[in-house]
Amino acid sequence: MALTIIVLEGRHLPKMDVLSHCDPYVEVVFGKEKWSTRAWKNQVHPSWDEGYTFSLADYKTRDAIPSPLFRLHDFDYTSDNDLIGVGRIPDAEMRGLIASNDEKSLKLTLDVCDEEGQPITGIDGDYTQLDIELSMIDESSLETVTGKHMLFATEEDYQKWIWKEMSPNAYGVFLALSLHDGIATAVSQCGVLLVITVFIQLSFVVKVNDWVSETKLAKPFTPTWYYWEMGPGQGLCGENYSIWVAALTVFLLLMLDNVPHLVHLITTACFSRELRYRGKHQVLSISNGQRIVAALLAVATEVVAWVIMMDTGIRFVLTASTVVELCRSTVALMFIMQVDEFIYKSCSTPALRRRIADKQFRVNYAALLNYTVPERKLYASKNVYSLYVHMPLLLLISFVGVLILRNTNPTCGFVDFNFW
Where does the pLDDT of residue 389 fall: very low under 50, low under 70, confident under 90, or very high at 90 and above? Predict the structure, then answer.
């Protein structure tokens, strides 16, 4: 069996800071294990709705299972975090939950008390409370579903999805330093690295784009960009074109693999308010103006390069005259897309790489949809799409796209339908 603990919300928190109310987070202590929610900035009624699943396999008897403690903290950016109080589960409630042989859930409201057991009084005069939910689940089901809205994943997988390190390239490193340490620090420590990466990557992309446009007569971003100069029987105009469908599918698969990374950059730049750095929660104090500058320098440049590469790559693949040229085009495009990571690994210092690896930013995906869909439902939807939709959809797009282009390009002439 396993125990899932979800911290739902807190109410009536006290004022802890001079210039603001409170920056609360909850640390759950379960035996020798610990887990923490994210910190809310300046909030006395936080709504976390975050959870974690603890395995009970190491406990030989159910009587040995400890009661979890809920330590409510006020996060401080410049000093040690302050303990507000502790919430404890009544022994009778805990014993009743773990005594059952069936999967069972329990919602509780805990009073937060000080070290002497006296209840904490909030800023509005009421007692400080935490709402939690406990669930006993079969540990074998962790491979398929945990939590209300999780699908094909564990709670640990979900936590890794919302708490992420920046990508190991100049764009991600510049954004991480900008959000945590400020624009000036980012410019001084990796500004040159970012400029070199942008220059090399865009130089490759623009040159390949020009070459495809000039030699293949495939003009970018025009209604006739697929009218390339090719005679009947050559390349895509040949009788057997399954290799072009496969190549286009692989190219789209590799290019779209960067989309989660781009979404990660955008959501972190615009909405992230906290990070974990060397085991401590920190609230990001960067201004909106600095966020905009960081987003323009680190995110916009990579997005522009990706869009140009997507357009160039599709035209490059579809205008290849031979299978050898087709393979070369795909390999060349993938090399260009990986240049940023090669440069970062070669030109960054070990200290900088360790520093970036220690930073985990809270990615607020729900903010993209204005919080209309819970993040756990978004995660479940992403898993369903990845498993059942993504690859069939790319194959369908490639097949239909190649079929249409073969039959609408006037330079091909009449071509018999022979997929293989």
Answer: very high
What's the mean pLDDT in 313-319?
A: 76
Whether pLDDT at 11 is above 80: yes
Q: What is the dihedral of CA 124, 14, 362, 185, to 10 degrees?
A: 120
Kindly tell me if the per-residue pLDDT of 419 is higher than 70: no
80/3: higher pLDDT: 3
Q: What are phi and psi of 131, to 5 degrees?
A: -100, 125
Say if residue 303 is in the same domain as residue 370.
yes
Please check whether residues 118 and 201 belong to one and the same domain: no
Please answer whether residues 38 and 281 qualify as being in contact, where contact means their C-beta atoms are separated by less than 8 angstroms: yes
pLDDT tens for 85-109 read 999 998 888 888 877 666 678 889 9
Total number of domains constituting the chain = 2
Question: What one-letter code names the amino acid at 378?
Answer: L
The token pair at 418 is 């022979």
Tokens 């369903």 map to which residue? 384
Does residue 60 sit in the same domain as residue 187?
no
CA triple 306-310-312, angle to 5 deg = 115
Separation between Cα atoms, residue 119 and residue 109, nearest integer Å: 13
* Strand order through the sheet with 69-74: 33-36, 24-30, 69-74, 82-88, 104-113, 129-137, 2-11, 47-55
* CB neighbours of residue 274 within 10 Å: 21
Lowest pLDDT segment from 207-221, 227-241, 378-392: 227-241
Whole-model pTM: value is 0.61
Query: Do residues 182 and 271 both lie within one domain?
Result: yes
What whole-number distance in Å separates Cα of residue 95 and Cα of residue 63? 8
- Three-state DSSP at 17 gives coil
Residues 209 and 334 in one domain: yes
Tokens at 147, concatenated: 């939590």
104 is in which domain, residue-wise? 2-143
Phi, psi (deg, nearest 5) at residue 128: -70, 135
Which of 198, 196, 177 is closest to 186 using CA atoms? 177
In a domain, 301, yes or no: yes
Q: Which helix (H) or strand (E) holds 87?
A: strand 82-88
Across the range 291-316, mean pLDDT stands at: 83
Mean pLDDT in residue range 302-327: 78
